[in-house]
Amino acid sequence: MNTKIAESNEKWYTNAGENYTSNGPFKLKTWKHNDKIELVPNENYWDKDAVKLKKVEMYMINDNNTELSMFKNGELDWAGMPTGQLPADALPELKKDGSLNIQEIAGTYWYKFNTEQKPLDNVNIRKALAYAIDRKGITEQITKDGSVPAMAAVPPTMFEDNKKGYFKDNDVKKAKEYLEKGLKEMGLKDASELPAIKVSYNTDEKHAKIAQAVQDMWKKNLGIKVQLDNSEWAVYIEKLHQGDYQVGRMGWLGDFNDPINFLELFRDKKGGNNDTNWENPEYKKLLIDSQKETDPKKRLEMLKKAEGIFMDEMPVAPIYFYTNAWVQDKQLKDVVMSGLGDIQIKWAHFE
Amino acid sequence: MFKYIGKRLIYMFLSLWLIVTATFFLMRAVPGGPFTSEKQLPPEIQKNLNQYYGLDQPWYHQYFDYLTSILKWDFGPSFKYKGQTVNDLINGGFPVSFMLGMEAILIAIAIGVVLGVIAALKHNKWQDYTAMVIAVLGISVPSFIMAAVLQYVLAMKLQIFPVARWESWAHTVLPALALASTPMAFIARLTRSSMLEVLSNDYIRTAKAKGLSRGVITVKHAMRNAMLPVVSYMGPLVAGILTGSFVIEKIFGIPGLGSHFVLSISNRDYTTIMGVTVFYSILLLFCILLVDIAYGFIDPRIKLTGAKKGE
């Protein structure tokens, strides 16, 4: 950060112009708030000869359908993640005509269990609920964007064998076994004696559909009644943080491509992103020790072991791993997408 | 007249104060604050943020601080958009919404009044029925469907206009049409029923008997009286349209003020909520005042000051 600029102009970051400091292959030429951003090649960039694009215009469009219409009309060269989003009902049609691009990214969509509320304080009940979900059905009928069923917490971009996961998807038989064990431990004879479980989510079409599907699965497979509860985002987050929920939907996208980013969410019971009120001393020790371990192979083994403990206690039921879905102009080449889902347009060009 | 305007301005001030107070307390009552997110902030940072935005002061402190800064036309920094003040947001968004709104109002008035007058003059003939079918469609079809249809037909299929955004004159046509469709239909119906009522009055028959031409009767005598309901409708309509329609601006990607009205609430952006509410209220109260003054000019029978007629 250029100290001269920081000292002379406190608000250098609020608008584009002479004082806007940045590194990287492009620099900010204009920034019309709420409207568009223009990028031009940065002549001071170390690798400036590799940059082929003369100008990048980024339009701020809030409506997904408008974004796709503009792409189809030739007004946009890229529609969808990571910069925007494709409308969910357009995905099957785009898949059919071959223009849909999909890439798995480092993110997991999961249902958190509030382990301080009955009956979710019983690990067998939690496992029963997690095993009784048909993830393949959800990803094929609801999300339809190539998301991968998740039977593990850490995405496959970090632990490759998490593609297979720790248990079988939609294993209703095993789920019923866990349910029986849990009921016996609680002194109950039948699932109908359990109170209705509340599944909370923030207002969104996709979350609503998935919650309804899960409600149906738990009723049909386990005989457990579910009540749905939806709130607006800020209200919903407050509920989670205050523990005012039983089962709550959440997702986590990796900030960097290492498992610790996902595992440390649940290290401390009152950690800011935990919300499940679960913690485990052995899990905690493994995570803390892994940060001192200098041998990368040994370190990853420690993290995998920690994940094993996590999946064995199931404070969270993973549902699917996220993907990026997008369409791009056929002539646009060499846009590189990282495992976390960001794009690098340094080498991009039109043929 | 000036005494009347003076009295009205005092009432406006009072209303504004009530609106500001009600909004201030209502928005604080909603759970979740401006810094609520799934990545919980460490307590020290929360404390600093609260201090910077003055949220750690007792409520009456915050309330009075806010009242005094509004009087100076300073709505404070936006909680959500770092580095921008609410004044920046309004100054950036309002001119765009204003332009779009004016276009829509002009279209609505021009087409609406013409349709209504034709329908009234050709009462119960095919022109009447056609005009009224158009009006019913305009009122019933929601603006976002109208917007999508316009985008699909005129932009994508016929390639006459661009799909979205706000760059050139051509970009303004589709959103203005979508925005104007419902008001235009309303104005058409209002004009029609008002004209029908006026045309059956005695003084119109007198004018015809005196031999005045159809055109003069319609425009000079009938329309002037028929416009009264339309003018009443226009007051709140103008205020609402000029501050931006959230739906139209979202669909057409227009950087206006409309989105801030809705998004600021889900963002719990307290200053922006207050700022746009105050701004809209001032505009609305002003438009209503203008409408009332206009009454006095259009219909001399109406004496705003309540003085006796004739005398």
UniProtKB/TrEMBL annotation, chain B:
<dbReference type="InterPro" id="IPR000515">
    <property type="entry name" value="MetI-like"/>
</dbReference>
<dbReference type="InterPro" id="IPR035906">
    <property type="entry name" value="MetI-like_sf"/>
</dbReference>
<keyword id="KW-0813">Transport</keyword>
<keyword id="KW-1003">Cell membrane</keyword>
<feature type="transmembrane region" description="Helical">
    <location>
        <begin position="272"/>
        <end position="298"/>
    </location>
</feature>
<dbReference type="InterPro" id="IPR045621">
    <property type="entry name" value="BPD_transp_1_N"/>
</dbReference>
<comment type="similarity">
    <text>Belongs to the binding-protein-dependent transport system permease family.</text>
</comment>
<protein>
    <submittedName>
        <fullName>Oligopeptide transport system permease protein</fullName>
    </submittedName>
</protein>
<feature type="transmembrane region" description="Helical">
    <location>
        <begin position="9"/>
        <end position="30"/>
    </location>
</feature>
<keyword id="KW-1133">Transmembrane helix</keyword>
<feature type="transmembrane region" description="Helical">
    <location>
        <begin position="230"/>
        <end position="252"/>
    </location>
</feature>
<feature type="transmembrane region" description="Helical">
    <location>
        <begin position="169"/>
        <end position="188"/>
    </location>
</feature>
<feature type="transmembrane region" description="Helical">
    <location>
        <begin position="133"/>
        <end position="154"/>
    </location>
</feature>
<dbReference type="GO" id="GO:0005886">
    <property type="term" value="C:plasma membrane"/>
</dbReference>
<keyword id="KW-0812">Transmembrane</keyword>
<feature type="transmembrane region" description="Helical">
    <location>
        <begin position="98"/>
        <end position="121"/>
    </location>
</feature>
<dbReference type="GO" id="GO:0055085">
    <property type="term" value="P:transmembrane transport"/>
</dbReference>
<dbReference type="Pfam" id="PF00528">
    <property type="entry name" value="BPD_transp_1"/>
</dbReference>
<keyword id="KW-0472">Membrane</keyword>
<dbReference type="Pfam" id="PF19300">
    <property type="entry name" value="BPD_transp_1_N"/>
</dbReference>
